[in-house]
Amino acid sequence: MRKLNETQKEIEGIAGRVPQLTEKQKEWARRNFNYFRSVGKNSTETICPDCKGKVPFPSDMKKGSKWCKDDFTIRCPHCGAKIQVRTWGHGTLNSSYNRKQEDFFQVLNVVGEWQVTRLFYMRKYCYVRKENTNWEYYEVCQAWNNPKYKKTFFRSLPKSCCINHPFNPYKLYDFSPSYDENGHCKQDERGYFLLDAKPCELEPRRVGGPNYFNTDTICPGAKILPAYKRMGASVRSLSKTPFNMMGLCEHIVNPMYETLLKCREYKLIDHITQYRNANNAYAYFTAWKICKRNGYDFKRNKKTLDEWLDLVYLLIKRGLDYHNPHYVCPADLHGTHNRLVELEQRDEEIRRERERREADARARERARVAMLTREQKNEEFINRRKAYFGLGILSEKCGFKIVALQSIDDFEREAKIMKHCVFVGGYYLKEDSLILSARDENNRPIETIEVDLRTFRILQCYGTKDTHTPLHDDIVKTMNANMWQVREIAEGRKRIAC
After folding, report:
1. Where in the chain is the domain with CATH 3.40.630?
2. Domain 379-497 class?
3. What pTM was computed for the model?
4. Neighbour tally for 15: CB within 10 Å
5. How does pLDDT run across 7-58, given as a tens digit for each residue?
């Protein structure tokens, strides 16, 4: 078991002060619970899991119509229970209804200087010919937040083992590759890809979803830490923004989000927290402040607000000055937005035409190369890369050298020894790629390196069967330290060509 740090020890010390679940909160959870039923598409009624009474479907929902493909919610006319019906595509189900009914809800408490978000699991067994069981409540985990820390501390509880759907708090975030300006995946010094963590989108209240911390499942009487209240946090802000409590606590320490929350700019918060707009969040915030400073009303209705947000996005994309009120506060918002859209469409057509010409040129080049013999390909490769044949990078510390491959035979020999695709993949025909080989004192290959001659970065560096050798980190570090030699040769070739 991993050792606890000082902060986690502090949390464990005061965890006993967390209040118990009250009867009022349990009653609210039962009253707002959504029962789930699975029926066939030919069904016209269902059975209430609570009172066992028959619940007919509304008359406007006919068999075979579009509603059969989606879930819908109805109320029992006998007891008033909410039932979320899930339809299936074929036939009628033999089972009368789902036997186990379950859901999640949240309770917000304050313990000392900590904001505690508690996740509870509730379940009830419903039967046809005998009485239903009572509700059972289990606390799954606790999320602890403090204004001093940007991180959320999760505390799992032993009762969570009773749940058939294990809860993993780390599923609150989705990990995706991080890209640079050129569209390439970012890598660290060791060549591993860097990942960006973004909050998962909130999902409906359904068991089995990756995120149960929904804003619709907070018990009334929620207590929020005074420090977070001063920053603009409230139950209303949780219901109007895409944040859950942990996401709100992590973002609210940023003065930008604190200002927008206090001004109740929930639509703008929703827009800038989307993953595709996260990098331009401060640009939207700057444009918003300019509008406030000049008394410009950009949200007269939903349509104008969407147009203004799209206008700022186009200003950022085209490199225009979004600090200038002339662009951000136009008198004719609709006309200015349409003109920018037309310019963007024209640039998109030009880009597509350029890509089409480049694709045709590459196709013609592939057809030309296919007609060449091996000797002609070798001669063309030598004329293209002979300036790099004298390149020699030595590492006296580790005892290896890095040299450029000088012929197609070298590529074939390298691929045969290292058992990878440097020859079959046709790397000797790539226009902006330089292939180097790291070799030991006996001139045996250790790893094969591919360098991009446009960005002068290492694209690949692999040993036998595309694996990393013990000298991989030293090879990458040595190559990056001597990349200036490759850059000088490339720039010298460009000056000669000019």
Report:
1. 379-497
2. alpha beta
3. 0.59
4. 15
5. 888 888 888 888 888 888 888 888 877 787 777 767 778 888 888 888 888 7
